Amino acid sequence: MKRKDVETMLSAGLISPEQAAAITEHFHLNDGRGWRWLLICLCALAGGLIVAGIIMLISANWQDIPPIVKMGCSMALLLLFWLGWARQRERRPIVAEVLGFCGAGMWLGSIALYGQIFQLQNPFVEGFTLFFAGIVLLPFICRQRLLIWAVVICSFVQCVLLMVTNESPMCLPAIWPKLPWDEYLLGALPLLLGLWWGLAERWRVAGERWSGYSWLAPVLLIVGVSAAQSMMYIPGNFPEMNTVLWAELATMPVLLLCLKPRGTGWLPWCGLALVLSLCLPGVLGVSCLREMTQGFSINGCHYDALLPEWAGRLSGIVIYMLLALLMIYSGWRALRLSWINIGSLMMVYAAIALVADVLDSYTFSGLVLVVTGLLLLGLGWLLEKGRRHLVKSVKDAQSSTL
What we know:
single chain; 402 residues
C-alpha cells in the first residue's frame, strides 16, 4: 500500500482522518522509501571511495611504511569500521550498513596485504575462500542488505573455483581427479541459484529483519531466466546426461518445494518450481535436437539428419514460450505481479529470439508469425484477467480491513 492509496480512500470518504493517520503510521508510509534507497546508494558510494582512497594513499607511500605498520593500520581500520557499525546500528541503521560493508572490504584488503608483505604464493582460490568464510555469516548475524549481495555473488564464484580449478588441495578436481567436475558445474550453479532465490522468497514474509533481503528474489529470477534463454537460443556443446546430472536435476524441485514461503499456495508455487526445474532439461533437450538436425555418425557410417534445420532453431523458442506462460499462470494464481512481469519478460525474450532467427521461406515465416500472434493474444487475455482478479482481491481485502 502506498500513501497515495490512503489519500484516495480518505478523499472518497471511505476512511476517517484518524484512520488514515493510523494506517500511514502502521505501514510506515511517511518514511520515504525512495529517499532511503537513494541515501543507501550515496553512502555506499562514499564508503567505497573512502576505502579506495585509503588503498591509494597506502600505495603511494608503500616503500616507506614498515610491514608492521601496514598490518597494524589495516587491522585498525577493520576494527574501526565494525566499531562504528556497533555504535550506529540503532540510531542510524543505513550508515551502520555502509560501515559494515566497508569493514568487509577492509577484510579483503587485509588478506591481500598480508599475502603481499610476506610474499605468500598461495593460490587465488585459498585467499578467496578465506575472504568468503569471513563474510558469509555476517548478513545472518547482523542486518546487512548491501553485504548479502556480495555474499551471493561470492558464493557463485566460490562454487566455480572449487569445481573447475586444480590449484589447491581443497579443490574438488584435486580430491577426486577422475570425476569431470567441470561438467557437474552445469547442474551445481542452477541449484545454488535456486537455493538463494527460495531463501529470498521466504525472507519476504519472514519478518522485518529479513524482509530487506527479499529484493534478491526478482534479481536472481531475472538472471536465471536470462541465462536459460541465452543457452536455449545460442548453440553450445553441453555434456551428456549422467547419474550426477540427473541427481542435480532431481534435487531442484525438491529443494524449491522445501523452501515454499508462507502465504503462497501450493499450486502456483509448484508451477514456478516446475518452470525453474525444467530450464536446464530444456537446454539439454534443445542441444540434442540441434544435433539431430546436423546428422550423426555410428561406427564410421554417416546418417542424414532426422529433423529439418528449422526444428532445431525453433525448439528453444517454443520451449521458452511455454515456460513463460507457465510462470505467468503461476503469478496470476499467486497474485504476484513480479512473477507475471518476469514471465512477460520471458515472452519478450522469446519474441526477440524469434525475430532475430533466420527463417527459410515466406511460408514458414508466415506460419510462425501467425502462431506467435495467437500466443500473444492469449497472453494479453490472461494478463488482463489476472489484473482484474488482482484488483478485485485488493479491493476486497481493503473492504474487509475497514
